[in-house]
């Protein structure tokens, strides 16, 4: 066909054109470099001259102000001369785009027919390179930090640089015939892609010395002194309102970054938030995290540690998204205020009970899609009687929180996932603009390091659900009694004092 | 931004593989090409989305730029990369499924790599499934290869494909005024063919450049009118890279046809390490056995081989003395 002939002829043309373009480009490049070099030398000379003059000036200034004035004028004249002789002065050159200077600097360039390709600025995409892992022998172990459900973590020092890092060993079950754990691989991939000040940084992945079989895999992470959970457990007084705001802002900014990059963390909780001695918070442990698309794919509901798990997950939603993380952020908010996990359910049903007690019973207005969730059908909810309080009691539970704080917390703990604010919206919330203003990170109190020397205490928190476990079918559950106590309380005073 | 970029091969890596591998260049190309074809065929039979299979192709190519060819069986590396990518994505496949598919594709019942492809497809399942012990051995090999791939790539399994970008670019250019499916299909065909290229285009160019080159080729093929200006610059591709990719993508088909003629072994099933060893042996053997009667006009080659043999002998002598 004609197209074939055309294409082959074209291919020649293209090759020729490419060659031509290349040689032209090279010439241009050489010319540009030359011009640049000349310019640099000139700048250098000018700078030296100026420095000399400045010195002279300083000396002269001490002596006679008159001479200084004269000098300054002279200097101005000199610069003016420069301008006409060798091109525009330093100051102006910085302002003008490079293309213009090239055109004026080198008269030869004007003679060349305008070639758009040499002038256009093309974005260059840098994706890095690939290559083998290094060996763990590049690090010296200092001490163990933690050994628990997440596997083994140790403090270590890089031999070449002396830098202190955290080594986290990827937990591998040798009996598992599905190979390296997919959660670990996802964690590595996601951490590799993340570069944000509030997300823990993965420096590299190293393997054990024997590379004939890859069994020992270590993540080399930034070493961070504390986790928020153990700080909360040990502090005699809760965080100040200003400190809570700083922590929340950092958390929200990290989560906003993750969500912007299509990552769901799915296990946000205080023990996964690290805090260094400079008041910087970093989100860690991406063992449950994964990339999602829009619309979100079908995902497992068995994610997020029970106490931080959103109601739609408990009710078996197969499609969920960023709001599950925002629910966890709400739980963390509450925990930062009281030093106690907010919703400590003993099991799925108890967790749901605690949620409904705090946030109210879902209604058609508060959560229109509620009835369609798989586990919602079996639930028996208290009949809605006019006057009976089945709404949220967040205001009553946090009497010291400002109205803006309650509105943010209430928003994050909205039963309907669609009503929760996104992390970006949260960052813009009124709460953070009100007094007391968020405390500067550098002004943050420091805490005695546990991770530094001793072994971290085992957490009382339940762990994130294991992979492959069966999602709990809630079955028929009767929630109709959960508000019976509350009604009695409410009847007592008829009003409540509000502390601001 | 990482969703649009890939880690690329360094010039050093490309040079090392070409120059210091124990295998001649055309054998290297044959191994890469047939392993990529095998991966694609397995992806189809495993009903994986092409996005997953294509990622496996890229992982496979990267692996062989870091590790020597002969350290694992080629089909095992192909299976392991497919297994790994599927596992990380939304559609994991069990080792059992992968074993069945690869066993079939490597068996004489498969029409892949076999010409004429007129053999009756898949007569009986039993003839193409492994015994339990053979399956266990395959399974262990896949897991070992998986770990090896991850080690070789520093656990970086990130692959950005140009396919979605290409569709977006096409939309931006209003499909160049031709029927959407017609040009889009052609573009995707170029992108998928490029996965098989022994030039490893996916390791030398970023997705945006691949997408633009595929659109250029497709537009030429369907006779669509492209903008008069240097439109590729809008997508951050320069003329030189575009030219290289356009030629690279177009040459795959002809190159593959020629190779099939040159290397008749390719028509007798997937090449294995043994095939390669035999091939190497034959080359050496030709030189030693009958210097003049090479048959395929390999006079120069024989002289070279003869010289290499003499040097080997000399070395052996010297070592023997020392």
UniProtKB/TrEMBL annotation, chain A:
Spell out the residue ranges making up region: Disordered: 1-118, 434-473
Gene3D superfamilies noted in UniProt? Phosphorylase Kinase, domain 1 (3.30.200.20), Transferase(Phosphotransferase) domain 1 (1.10.510.10)
Top EC class, one word = transferase
Family matches, as SUPFAM superfamilies: Protein kinase-like (PK-like)
Among the record's GO biological process terms, what is one? regulation of mitotic cell cycle
Listed under catalytic activity are: L-threonyl-[protein] + ATP = O-phospho-L-threonyl-[protein] + ADP + H(+); L-seryl-[protein] + ATP = O-phospho-L-seryl-[protein] + ADP + H(+)
Q: Write one Pfam family the protein is assigned to.
A: Pkinase
Identify a single GO molecular function assigned to this protein: ATP binding
- Per the record, what is one GO cellular component? nucleus
Q: Tell me where the signal peptide lies.
A: none
Record keywords, A-Z: ATP-binding, Kinase, Nucleotide-binding, Serine/threonine-protein kinase, Transferase
Output the CDD domains linked to this UniProt entry: STKc_CDC2L1 (cd07843)
Spans of biased composition, class Low complexity? 48-63
- The biased composition feature labelled Basic and acidic residues covers 22-47
- Please report which protein family the annotation says this sequence is part of: Belongs to the protein kinase superfamily. CMGC Ser/Thr protein kinase family. CDC2/CDKX subfamily.
Q: What is this protein called?
A: cyclin-dependent kinase
Taxonomic lineage is:
Eukaryota, Fungi, Dikarya, Ascomycota, Pezizomycotina
TrEMBL record, chain B:
**Record region (Disordered):** 280-300
The source's domain of life comes to Eukaryota
Choose any GO biological process term that the UniProt entry carries and state it: regulation of transcription by RNA polymerase II
Lineage of origin: Eukaryota, Fungi, Dikarya, Ascomycota, Pezizomycotina
Q: Provide the leader sequence positions.
A: none
Q: From what organism does this protein derive?
A: Bombardia bombarda
| Segments of skewed composition (Gly residues) | 286-300
Protein name in the entry: Cyclin-like protein
The molecular function terms of the Gene Ontology recorded here are:
cyclin-dependent protein serine/threonine kinase regulator activity
